[in-house]
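TICKET: design request
STATUS: open
ATTACHED STRUCTURE:
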């Protein structure tokens, strides 16, 4: 929080050099006060900050270790740690945020801690290389082609266009839209809803090469229960993931999970206009989506039958 205040002060003090910096922060919170109004308000604020960062309304995000895992953020070109990672998990999770091509990863440490940090980083690097060597096999080959430009990517598969509104989603924007849809699904603050991707190598006949198919599985509380399989192989994993995300957007729109402007019909836009005739579902002024944390239902209480002396009992 102090660093966030300092960043804003510097940007305001020297607008010519640092005026482009638009920053905000996210922090973790204790599960002891889960359900309290303060915790719920903090969680809502965290979601709003992450949404702005994904949509590039922010270009600098100050965060605690809450962002090390379980939270989807866009590809970053610079990641700076203000303390050294204590284990390999923390190292690889924070380093994994610097996924943009040519990204930089920095660790700031005390001078007195330099020797210990260097030793740990050497071990972490060896572990990383060992894992890459062990699991980068013919069934999980590295991409042999550099990523194309955005225009070239979008030209590989035609965009999905809604004729009534003109809204469109392309290969390069499909993954972000799927992630945004998942973020709008009903969930509690413990749950991070993310789609699951599976890459399937496809051997090219006559060549020692592999193309890639992808399968995408949405979270369990999405109406689309079955995995969405890419039928046409692509040259790289990334292109396969983009193509299957584009197909997912098309199916979500067909199932009315995306409106005609290709926006998720989720926590921010849902309006409950009809109630089920089942009295268990009827609650006055109910406006929460089924499956959300605040949705409540009424159930009749029943008492089990007791044993009669004259009746036979079977197990």
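STATUS: resolved
RESOLUTION: sequence designed for all positions
ATTACHED SEQUENCE:
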């Amino acid at each position: 929080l102090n660093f966030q205040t300092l960043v804003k002060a510097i940007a305001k003090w020297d607008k010519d050099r640092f005026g482009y910096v638009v920053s905000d922060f996210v922090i973790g919170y204790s599960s002891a006060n889960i359900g309290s109004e303060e915790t719920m308000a903090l969680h809502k604020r965290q979601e709003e900050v992450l949404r702005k960062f994904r949509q590039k309304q922010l270009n600098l995000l100050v965060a605690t270790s809450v962002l090390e895992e379980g939270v989807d953020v866009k590809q970053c070109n610079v990641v700076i740690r203000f303390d050294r990672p204590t284990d390999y998990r923390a190292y690889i999770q924070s380093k994994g945020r610097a996924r943009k091509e040519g990204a930089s990863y920095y660790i700031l440490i005390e001078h007195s801690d330099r020797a210990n940090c260097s030793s740990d980083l050497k071990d972490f690097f060896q572990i990383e290389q060992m894992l890459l060597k062990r699991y980068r096999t013919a069934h999980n080959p590295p991409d042999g082609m550099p990523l194309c430009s955005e225009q070239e990517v979008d030209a590989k598969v035609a965009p999905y266009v809604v004729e009534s509104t003109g809204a469109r989603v392309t290969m390069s924007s499909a993954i972000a839209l799927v992630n945004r849809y998942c973020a709008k699904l009903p969930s509690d603050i413990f749950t991070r809803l993310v789609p699951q991707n599976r890459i399937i190598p496809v051997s090219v006949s006559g060549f020692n090469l592999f193309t890639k198919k992808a399968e995408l599985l949405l979270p369990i509380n999405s109406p689309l229960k079955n995995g969405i399989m890419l039928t046409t192989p692509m040259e790289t994993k990334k292109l396969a993931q983009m193509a299957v995300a584009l197909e997912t957007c098309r199916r979500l729109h067909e199932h009315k999970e995306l409106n005609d402007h290709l926006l998720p019909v989720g926590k921010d836009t849902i309006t409950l206009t009809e109630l089920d005739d089942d009295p268990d579902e009827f609650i006055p002024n109910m406006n929460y989506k089924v499956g959300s944390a605040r949705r409540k239902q009424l159930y009749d209480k029943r008492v089990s039958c007791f044993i009669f002396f004259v009746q036979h009992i079977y197990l």
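CLOSING REMARK: The radius of gyration is 25 Å. The chain has eight helices and nine strands.
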